[in-house]
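Bench log. Compound arrived from synthesis this morning; before running ITC I wanted a structural hypothesis for how alpha-D-galactopyranose sits in the protein. Inputs:
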Amino acid sequence: MPITFQKENSLFRLTTKNTLYAFDIVKGKLIHRYYGKKAGAQVKTFAEEPGQVWSFAPYATEGEVYFSLDTQPLEYSYFGSGDFRTTALRIRNGAGNSVTGFDYVSHKIRKGRVEIPAIPCGRADDRTQTLDITLRDAASGCELHLYYTVFYDCDVISRYASVTNRSGGDVVIEKWMSLALDLPGHNYDLISLAGAHAYERIYNERTPVFRGNLSMHSRRGATSHQMNSFMAVCDRKADENHGDVYGFNFVYSGSFLNEVEGDPTGKTRVQMGLGDENFNYRLKDGETVFCPEAVMTYSPKGLGIMSRNFHRFANDHIVPAKAKERRPVVLNSWEAFYFNINEDVMVDFASAAADCGMDMVIMDDGWFGARVHDRAGLGDWYVNKNRFKEGLAPYVDRVKKTGVKFGIWVEPEMVNPDSDLFRAHPEWCIRCPERPMSYSRSQYVLDMANPAVIEYLKEMFTETFRDVPIDYFKWDMNRHISEPGSLYLDAEDQGSMEYRYMQGVYSLFRWFMETYPDAMIENCSGGGGRYDLAMMAISSQIWTSDNTNARDRTLIQYSSMLAYPASVMSCHVSNPHGDMHELDLKYKVAVNGVLGYEFNVLDTPDEVKDEIRRQVKEYRTFDLVITDGEYYRLSSPYESDISAYYFQLGDQILLSAILTNGHAVTGRKKECKKLAVRTADPAATYRDTRSGMVVTGDELRRGIEIGAFSPDGSGWDAKLWYFVKE
Ligand code: GLA
């Protein structure tokens, strides 16, 4: 049984394949006991290790000075009840104060999981179990459920919660963390993934934890390019294969807050949850609301295991099962033509895609309304008849006759002020009536918290896509939320707008999935601005970044894979300008994920087309090793001149080394001359199908020489080996 409760000492034990998580109930409070390796774990209960006395630490019962919420390692903590650390839950009650404090009432161990209304979460399998703990706050009249869901095989445990108001009046949830964990000691580093548009997750930063609060967040109403929701807390000396590592991530696409705080008693509090700057959720009497799911994993041996656990979790419990069908190699029109598309160009483009052996052509922005540049048309989802004279259906018919599938770009959450939609419904934007609205990419955000907006979009898309056989939607989102207000919501509900906005977005995604069951969705937000587990649960893959420069992509993809699998990482080869070396380099970087192309292959020399044809054919021989295999990092582009890694699926190993010419090193210059495939079968012989080289598994384990790089002297080059067991 993954979850057990020992009555004699009130101890919960949650086990995964390799990890154990334990806490006990003491005086109605949940006290954290252990998170780590299952084998040989020594869990001490409160009775065995009650903690020590600290001055200035409040306690509830006279004489029990050692039992203070300020100094105990807690499972979940509440504002104002004597814990002065950063807390997980703050509810303003009917009396107007925000003091919060819940006590254990009962628990249930359930098969499967508890679904979170309108927010994506991990999919249960036969072994999934959930611990559901009921707590009560007598003073505020609220009931709290803390949920722990165990995803056994991938060593992941998730945390989420619900609050029900039984106070007889309104309460307001002011801060809400999905996950809280008190770790022993301070001796950790925090790893976070910051970035910017076109540089998503590129700052793979490592910061020492100290006696103070480190917070990482998005206040943008979207996960954001600027900070990803993933974080890891690890031993100071932890590396790829050594040291304790705790990994965390949030299954949500809106504003979030991650906190790591060293406390005065020598512990470290880790929290992950809803961003609190614009979160004030008015909960009416009798209502229940859930916070999103946060996931955690533990590795006793470095970052590699953490990443593989998260990859397995995403592949088996997040990404829709349907997405596992072979992902198409696409040719996208954006970097080829930008807004200058029309029917004839796109049909020729589709023929070229077919000629190069690709599976699908994607018609990106520019096909609808007055959208001939980025200042008009968003919101008017009807085909531009000047460009597609007979309408969408006959045009898509012509595309399909060339032998490829058809995909189309949409940006449902947005509106240009220069659009019929905005002229008809200015009140449908996110806005505060007393203030002007800020522009970003000449557009405004629609109020997805308003059901009328969602209904309008459904009707519009139904009409436009009637009888059009679409195989793929690229769902974009090209600005963040400013002036966060909704003309639809009551004044008291304004603080829940961003949360309701996300619920509206997720419901429209679900509608697309149900209405077009044969189509896949590629998620995009100006590249990888919503590169998160919730988006991965409702789309097949994500456009990783608008930046297709091979050098920057090497870093972006390397960091993205700390937390997310290659199967969702959409990677396009952009224009190599006829340079065969660049084409080769871009291809070898792009095969780190789901391969596609994005440039005008119509005016490309034949030798480039021939090479693309060869690349697509080759990719098809090993794409499953990338999307379904296990991933091992060998050399970090942040620490050496070489980025190296391999994927392994059974008897197949795809090994890559990319020379990055010191592009973004941190100063820790490590030498990388040999690549050791430590998981190769020592008794086997492998053949590199690209060069014909034959090596023993033992040699692979000891390491093969990388050899000379950079035939063109540019300092940029890549090598690829595809080993198959003989
Ligand atoms: C965003 C996307 C691009 C492209 C453009 C179209 O920037 O990331 O890939 O779709 O929008 O306007």
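What the model suggests: The pocket of alpha-D-galactopyranose is lined by residues 334, 364-365, 409, 476, 478, 524, 526-527, 543, 546 (CB under 6 Å). The first helix runs from residue 302 to 318.
ITC booked for Thursday regardless.
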